[in-house]
Amino acid sequence: MTANPSGTVRWLVTGAAGMLGQDLLSLLGADDSAEVTALRRADLDITDAAAVLAAVEGHDVVVNCAAWTDVDGAESAEEAATAVNGTGVRHLAAACAKTGARLLHVSTDYVLAGDAAVPYSEDTPTAPVNAYGRSKLAGEQAVAELLPQSGFTVRTAWLYGQHGPNFVATMLRLAAQRPSLDVVDDQHGQPTWSYALARQLAALGRAALAGQAPAGVYHGTASGRTTWLGLARETYRLSGLDPERIRPTTSEAFVRPAVRPSFSVLAHDRWAQAGLEPLADWHEQLAEALATPVFTELAEAARTTESGRPQ
After folding, report:
1. DSSP assignment, residue 192?
2. Which of 65, 190, 210, 283 is the residue whose CA sits 20 to 30 A from 53?
3. How far apart are CA 181 and CA 229, in angstroms?
4. Residue 2, class by beta-carbon neighbours within 10 Å (0-12 exposed, 13-18 middle, 19+ buried)?
């Protein structure tokens, strides 16, 4: 399937009410060549194969932002998580195979072991360490199996943005509530702004339709690397707050039901094959994100509290 003769590209975005989905809709909504169908969880249950096929019909590009995202909850409900992250993605891939649509599926670094010392390449063997990672891997495998020439898996990590809860927003909210915070400094990753990822997905979709992007796995994370402590302190610094209010600690201080990978740094070599640049450095993305209204309001409230706190 190709774009309409008029030049219009027909996009379907699942999980449209989520953080990434809303950013993607904002971007595509400003594109005169895009005709967008936005489906929230209430609009489409991706575990329903017939409903998925009906929804996909008539579209050129499907971007799957729908997912079970409760990492800890998946430990006690792996079957339910896999129904969404695995079986649901298989239904989307099957529908795209039948209709000819390209599928852009958003996945995660959690499909990898998370114990490396150098950035993971796109072809690194998968080895998830928790139920959430296993559920997401099932989705990746479905895309690779059913859409070897027209399926694109984009792994992301440490995502934050203006829609919905995320680490950066939480740090700024807590800055207005607590004089100091303890943040782990032994997990390494790439903080990624959801709007930057949305831009990359839109570009990849266009490249896929033009036949310029090879199918397969891409790593949709920011360039560079840091720890959660580094991200928190940089968020404070760029927001005009004292970064020394954030103290380092270890993962042992925050025991969670699901094991977290200690190393989530991904390589971005495959973008060159699609004629696209990798996402910008995480510092650059963070600065751009913090200039948006949601974050500026949170920062202003935190600065007001900090200035009134006894030194």
Report:
1. E
2. 210
3. 10
4. exposed
Nearest by Cα to 133 from 258, 29, 236, 44:
258
> What CATH number has the domain bearing residue 81?
3.40.50.720
Residue 185 domain-assigned (yes or no): no
Number of helices (H), then strands (E), belonging to the chain: the values are 11, 12
**Residues acting as catalytic residues:** 132
What is the C-alpha to C-alpha distance for residues 308 and 100, in angstroms, rounded to an integer? 60
Q: Is the four-CA dihedral 254, 257, 262, 265 of positive or negative sign?
A: negative
If one counts the domains in the chain, the total is 1
297: phi then psi, degrees, rounded to nearest 5: -65, -45
Q: Residue 249: inside a domain, yes or no?
A: no
Tokens representing 113 are 């072991």
Q: What is the pTM of this model?
A: 0.96
The answer to whether the beta carbons of residues 32 and 7 sit under 8 Å apart is no
Contacts of residues 41-49 at CB distance under 8 Å and 24 or more positions apart, as own/partner, are 41/15, 41/17, 41/66, 43/16, 44/14, 46/14, 46/84, 46/88, 46/89, 46/91, 46/92, 47/83, 47/84, 47/87, 47/88, 47/91, 48/91, 49/91, 49/94, 49/95
- Distance separating alpha carbons of residues 3 and 7, to the nearest angstrom: 6
Q: How confident is the model at residue 6 (pLDDT cuts 50, 70, 90)?
A: low
Query: What's residue 4's pLDDT?
Result: 56
- 140 near 105, Cβ under 8 Å? yes
DSSP 263: B
Is residue 209 situated within a structural domain? yes
- For residue 242 the two structure tokens come to 């004292």
Supply the pLDDT for residue 2. 44
Q: Is residue 28 part of a domain?
A: yes
Q: Which residues on neighbouring strands pair with residue 182, listed in sequence order? A: 247
Q: What is the pLDDT of residues 86-99, one digit of tens each?
A: 999 999 999 999 99
- Rounded-to-integer distance, Cα 91 and Cα 184, Å: 38
Q: Are 258 and 130 in contact (CB under 8 A)?
A: yes
The answer to whether 87 and 95 have CB atoms below 8 angstroms apart is no
